[in-house]
Amino acid sequence: MNVRGATPRVVAVLLVLSGAVCVGLRFQARRDVRLGRGDSVWRLTYRIECDVDKAGANLRAAFPWDTPHSRVFREDFRSSGLTIGPRRLASTGTREVLAVAQEPGHADLTVRFDLHLSPTANWSVQAEPTALSVDTRARYLGSEPAVQTTGSAVIETLKRWPAAPATQAELVQRLFEYCQTQIGAGWEDAPSDAESALREGVATASGRARAMVALCRASKVPARLVTGFEIREGDEVPPQVWVEVLTGARWLPYDPTNGFAEKLPYNFVPARRDAAQVLLTSDVSAVEAVYSIVRLPGAPEGMAVNGGHVLDILDLTRLPLEMHEVLSLILLMPLGAVVTCIFRTIIGVKTSGTFTPTLLALSFVFADWRTGLLVFVAVIALGFTTRKVLDWLKLLMLPRLSIVLTLVVCCIVFAVSALDYLRLTPGSHAVLLPMVILTMIVERFYVTSQEDGLRVAIQLLAGTVLVGFFCYLVLRWESVARLLLAYPEGHFFTVAVLILIGRYTGYQLLEPWRFRDVADMEP
Amino acid sequence: MQRLRTDSSAKPARRRWRFWAWPSELRRRGILGMNRRNAAYILPRNPRHHFPRVDDKLLTKRICQARGIPVPETYAVIERQGDVRRFAALLDGRGEFVIKPTGGSGGRGILVIGQRDGQDLLTVGGERLSPADVQYHLASILAGLYSLSGHSDRAILEQRIVRHEAFAEVAVGGTPDLRVILYRGAPVMAMVRLPTAASRGRANLHQGAVGAGVHLRRGETFGGVCHNRVLAAHPDTGQPIAGLRIPDWDRLLLAAMNLGDALEMGYIGVDFVLDEALGPVVLEANARPGLAIQIANRSGLLRRLEMVDAHADALATHESRLELTARLAEVR
Predict the structure, then answer these.
(1) Are B324 and B308 contacting, i.e. CB atoms less than 8 angstroms apart?
(2) Which of B86, B79, B88 has its CA nearest to residue B143?
(3) What phi and psi, each to the nearest 5 degrees, are found at residue A224?
(4) Partner of A179 at 20 to 30 A CA spacing, among A266, A367, B5, B114?
């Protein structure tokens, strides 16, 4: 073998060896990860059962928020009779799992969160904007059915203090102390609204919190309820309710039930803001929700304890959970490229554009396949027709492409609307279909059909779709994605495979078919 | 052109039908596959920085002219959208010409105008084009619709080569062209591409033109291929494809070698058309010539390429290369 031929193989072998060494080192390092002093790992489980009254009924369970001392590093949903998907509420930033029932009957939903709790950590969390819009400020100052800011008991209570306090902090502290000491802790049948709580001097935990919210709001200090969990071992852990008051530029917590002011213990994790329930429902009955918390042993996968070392850059699992999904998808892209290489170089399937199939597949992962397929078929059919019509108008290429792009965009928007009409509401990611790529596919398809005939154009399109389909299968491979996120050096192997494919000089699988006539023919 | 033979090779071949051939059979026949072509011949033999010499048809033309190799006369080059409206004035009233993108490949974007009818122009395929249609086509070329790189391009207006009498019976609606593959400067395989009704007068195998092998020493056609299948008679005229002698064959081979030397690329295809007056005229050169030529020749390229490598000492002069080529013709 000459040097030229041998070098790539040597490089490939070296890459495989380096990959193996890196994976091994990291495996070792991950096993050695120990929790920091006082750190612990917990599993919070929501078990929800209910009877669905009609199709379209839904359950919305709030996710635990990340705090400086607590981070969710894994989440998992399971359900029967419900279609589920995560979403984020724009107003408060609360994340929810939204489970929609397709038909009446019994349904259940289990949601599991694994949390890393650390009394010493100070993780950065996405800050909530404290500059409130006019509407939001009005809401946090306004009256609600159970938070009657204009109720007589509320006004009477505020009249107890004739002198106004010097600062807002003093005022809030005074109101907090009043709710903590003057409103007794009642049984479950005690009042749970602000007005009755203040009048009767006894209330449930949420009643005391509402009383404080009402008093704050009546004193023109924005305040809201927060529901969350105190992370401690328990089979049936009741959600905690506390109050957050906007003081200066920060929302400060006050818990009249447990007596915490301005700062909560590190194991208090908020779930839903501006509401007293973790679980919100519509059109369901006989709801039973059980929240349980267990402590897990050891250090979990996907959790970095020590922070601040430069080498931590190499650890992708330390990034916030929300980035994991996108990062693992990006890490799967090279595998999509490998699939494309195999199809084009080893099998001999022709595609339009080199990475078009991979990008198409990527968009199908972000959108769900129903939306993707509907849009794809609509775009190709409509785009081709429009492109034919546009040919009569004799437009320059860029404006013409832009018109096709406009059409593609309209197709996507109306396909989403059509799916919604059919009660198959797609996620907001559905609109992330690659509009420019679809436009170029339409243009290529048309030009090829004109220049080389419809047969060749359809062959190219079919090749693109076929390769795209296999790329899609690869990009959907979640277990591999998780593995690559933990061991990104696995791509050493990918590059080694690509080098070997790059040096493959044998026949493409389709060439024996293409050259079949020459095989047994005498010249 | 004389018809030399109407022997067995002109009859439709009777073969057992098959859907598949084993790779070992292809290897036995010395068939060159796509991957080997790219990795073993194009990559090492065609330096990337010389690609513009073949990808830019205007540059290829200039190189040919410098070497005294006949090319179609250039009437005008349109480089700016602003010049598109002036195309009629640039043509000086000519009714017969070809529009082609300088950076196109596989015959894409080429428009052959056969005659003028008032303001309108008629393509050789019989399509009627208004001046606006032609301007639209020119604008598309300039925008880069047909260019290999996808970048903006230029359009050449050039002389239309009149079909040589030799091909009257086997070319429908257009001008046939001849492809010669040169390896390290030596012609290793050749074929003629005959337009058909299906290819709408274009000599492009993708579009349904018929390819026929050309014997390298004798300059005679044999065999035939259409859509990757072998065939013996022209699908439109029914005339046998084999046994045609290409006029000026040796001149054509010399011109090919001459151009190959100037381009400094080791593995290229050179496309010619035969003009009644000028003889072989270079249309373009291709740095990634297709592999269907092997079906047209009913023979693989690999052995011939290996033979050229084995006789590297015989590549010094055109004469010695022609001798080698004559021997290559017998390699099957």
Answers:
(1) yes
(2) B79
(3) -155, 165
(4) A266
Q: What local confidence, expressed as pLDDT, does residue B270 receive?
A: 95
Q: At what angle do helices A435-451 and A397-421 cross, to 10 degrees?
A: 120
Mean pLDDT of B255-274: 93
Contacts of B204 in chain A (CB under 8 A): 452
Does a structural domain hold residue A442? yes
Phi-psi region of A288 (alpha: psi -120 to 50; beta: other; left: phi over 0): beta
Q: Which two tokens stand for residue A464?
A: 């693109």
- Is a pLDDT exceeding 70 seen at residue B3? no
Q: Is A394 within 8 Å of B133 when comparing Cβ atoms?
A: yes
End-to-end Cα spacing for chain A: 33
Q: Could you tell me if residue A266 is inside a domain?
A: no
Q: Are A394 and B136 in contact (CB under 8 A)?
A: yes
Which chain B residues are Cβ-neighbours of A519 within 8 angstroms?
A: 18, 21-22, 25-26, 29, 31
Among A343, A350, A517, pick the best mutation site for testing chain B contact (most B Cβ within 10 A): A517
- Side chain identity at residue B190, one-letter code: A
User: How distant is the alpha carbon of residue B103 from its chain centre?
Assistant: 15
CA distance A474 to A478: 9
Quote the crossing angle between the two packed helices A369-393 and A435-451, to the nearest 10°: 50
- Say yes or no to pLDDT of A242 above 90: yes
Give the pair of three-digit tokens for residue A355. Answer: 């990475």
Q: What are phi and psi of A227, to 5 degrees?
A: -110, 140
Q: Tens digits of per-residue pLDDT, B101-146?
A: 998 877 788 888 888 888 888 887 778 988 888 988 998 888 888 8
| Amino acid letter, residue A115 | L
Per-residue model confidence as pLDDT tens digits over B173-227: 778 889 999 999 999 999 999 888 887 777 778 778 888 999 999 999 987 888 8
Domains of chain B: 8-55+163-328 (3.30.470.20), 74-159 (3.30.1490)
Search chain B and give the residue with CA nearest A395.
Answer: B136
| Burial degree of B128 (CB within 10 A; 0-12, 13-18, 19+) | exposed
Whether A182 maps to a domain, the answer reads no
Total of domains in chain A: 1
Residue of B186, B201, B103 lying closest to B148 (CA atoms): B103
Q: Which residues form the domain of A450?
A: 318-511
Torsion angle of C-alpha atoms B290, B293, B296, B297, degrees rounded to 10 = -160
ipTM score for this prediction: 0.81
Of A348, A505, A519, the CB nearest to B29: A519
Residue A326 domain-assigned (yes or no): yes
Gyration radius (Cα) of chain B, Å: 20
Q: Residues A176-194: pLDDT tens digits?
A: 888 888 888 888 888 888 8
The answer to whether A409 touches A401, Cβ cutoff 8 Å, is: no
